[in-house]
């Protein structure tokens, strides 16, 4: 990995969530400087680049269009092939950047702001979703909770920070009863909202006085919901290697939890390096690398997909 540039967008903080229209405009402004910086950091010449891999989906269409259009133009100008990548597969393939790579098959719990999935990974591009959320994603539940707590967007990292200082058993939130390996976070999200609203009505300083305990208790519930399902799926599929991927895998409680789960059963667990958990270019590059080895390229007529199956 020669360079991994991330152009973050802070503009959304003022709105408490990502504004799609603004996201694509800022992405459009950032993309060329980010690629230029990547080439400088990597100490390569543009002519050393053998192919361009880009995110085809899933995601916000406006931002995907910017990336696809840039990748096409770059590939055309440099006369190199184009490689289309599925964002969720790339989160999983981030495990192959380092030296310690998981062996197939493994089960990957992929948790981000938009997705919550348990994926049976049989090969680099042979993946099967065995469970997923029926409504909200885990990251969304954390982001919404943090919003009600008055914390800035995205709230996941701040919930993590406060949770380290609090008592995870201070407050009890419900564990939804969902069949098989699927998830639901909308009921939990609503119960957290009501819990905070009702307590604030009784005591206007409730959130301020209990921030760490609320965050620790919410995080504990989200983590136990996720890991209970992962445990159940690993047993059902008789898979002894489990992994985490996606932005929420940056969460300290979840990272500790999956290690404890693996230790309990003598399974192996894999967690991506911190910088490869939240959205990054390196994960798209590693996925592109494996497609490149197979000679799997895409034509210039390719269109992005807001929803993209594996
Ligand atoms: O994968 P990602 O960067 O973007 C999407 O593809 O959605 O995931 C973003 C999600 C957000 O919900 C954010 O709050 C959450 O990951 N997140 C965290 C942490 N860091 C990021 N959630 C909990 N603890 C963290 N440390
Ligand atoms: Zn992501």
Automatic annotation (TrEMBL):
One of its GO terms (cellular component) is cytoplasm. GO terms for molecular function: iron ion binding; tRNA N(6)-L-threonylcarbamoyladenine synthase activity. Its EC number is 2.3.1.234. One of its GO terms (biological process) is tRNA threonylcarbamoyladenosine modification. Keywords: Acyltransferase, Cytoplasm, Iron, Metal-binding, Transferase, tRNA processing. It catalyses: L-threonylcarbamoyladenylate + adenosine(37) in tRNA = N(6)-L-threonylcarbamoyladenosine(37) in tRNA + AMP + H(+). Fe cation binds at residues 87, 91, 279. Residues 2-285 form the Gcp-like domain. Pfam families: TsaD (PF00814). It is found in: Cytoplasm. InterPro entries: ATPase_NBD, Gcp-like_dom, KAE1/TsaD, TsaD. Belongs to the KAE1 / TsaD family. Required for the formation of a threonylcarbamoyl group on adenosine at position 37 (t(6)A37) in tRNAs that read codons beginning with adenine. Is involved in the transfer of the threonylcarbamoyl moiety of threonylcarbamoyl-AMP (TC-AMP) to the N6 group of A37, together with TsaE and TsaB. TsaD likely plays a direct catalytic role in this reaction. PANTHER family: TRNA N6-ADENOSINE THREONYLCARBAMOYLTRANSFERASE, TRNA N6-ADENOSINE THREONYLCARBAMOYLTRANSFERASE, MITOCHONDRIAL. This is tRNA N6-adenosine threonylcarbamoyltransferase. It comes from Mucilaginibacter polytrichastri. The gene is tsaD.
